[in-house]
Amino acid sequence: STYDAFWQARNIRPHLKNIRCAVMTVGGWYDAEDLFGPLEIYRATEKMNPGIVNTLVMGPWPHGDWGRGAGEKLGDISFHAKTGDFYREKIELPFFRHFLKGPDTNYIGAEARVFETGTDQWRRFDSWPPKQVASRTLYFHASGKLDFNSPSDGADAFDEYISDPAKPVPYTLEFTTGYPRSYPLHDQRFAASRTDVLVYETEPLEEDITFAGPLKATLHVSTSGTDSDWVVKLIDVYASDFPDPNPNPAHVAMGGYQQLVRGDVFRGKFRNSFEKPEPFEPGQVAKIEFPIPDIFHTFRRGHRVMVQVQSSWFPLVDRNPQTFVNIPTAKEEDFRKATQRVYRTGNAASGVTVLVLPAGAK
Length: 362
Fold this sequence. Notes:
- The chain folds into 2 domains: 5-125, Rossmann fold, CATH 3.40.50.1820; 134-357, Galactose-binding domain-like (Jelly Rolls).
- The protein is 11% helix and 31% strand.
- The protein has 4 helices and 17 strands.
- The strands form 4 sheets. Strands 7, 8, 9, 11, 14, 16 and 17 form a 7-stranded antiparallel beta sheet that branches.
- The chain is globular.
- It starts with a helix and ends in a 5-residue tail after the last strand.
């Protein structure tokens, strides 16, 4: 389907105006059901209601867990604090006391109260993203290298893989009839080993680096088909000597763990318009650029930053037949293998743009 009048009428953001009360919008960095919602509600409220109290709170939670549970752990990853309890006692309750029961002289508000994953600490900022961030792009290079230097390779520099809808890349290795709430930070080593996943990674970091705010993927691609999905994943690769949890009943090997930080998908036929899809010209280079929801994550010294690119994420995302058809009514013969290329040349660079927060920024 397209972004037609039916869906446009259901966009709440244009209606978030003439708000006079204090607003606190709460979301979870690992909300698999609606991460987009709280971030965009905060932004729309901020834009259309200047001067009101408008607070964003983001914690390390799946959907709804800010209102229940201790929030100490998700999947294999520990946050080393009861983040849910902290939010309810130290953020939510004081907010309601101050704005519903009368001014509290001890109340200290903040534009953004956000949990920094990687270092596992709550931070306060007077804007979101923080004003101190600087935009930088992690570029793809030959031999799977990733860094902030723009590529200088010639016109034929690309990486390729064959995407087969009959053998899609899974989004998790868990056996389940639903979806695991922890999948937004699952170990991605299983995907990195596949031939239909491109992997780019930095050298081990010499110092911590923090990304704060939305991401942007820019891909110069071609396909032998007429439609394709493009999945981009930002991953924190742990140092090889990272200690295992103790106790460790699941026998998780944390050394070299590839923790998903953020991933998103773009359906290529919508690269120029969500209202008017267009087929790819087989073998012709096309630019795809799309926003990826915010993160607030510190990659620690000794870790690596990794980006994976693939064309399926099943069954989280329905399979793209890789032919330009109406996917819900696609026939078996519409599903075809396609050769996918991602270019990394000087005039057709591919990479992920991040917002880097300087060390010590407040």
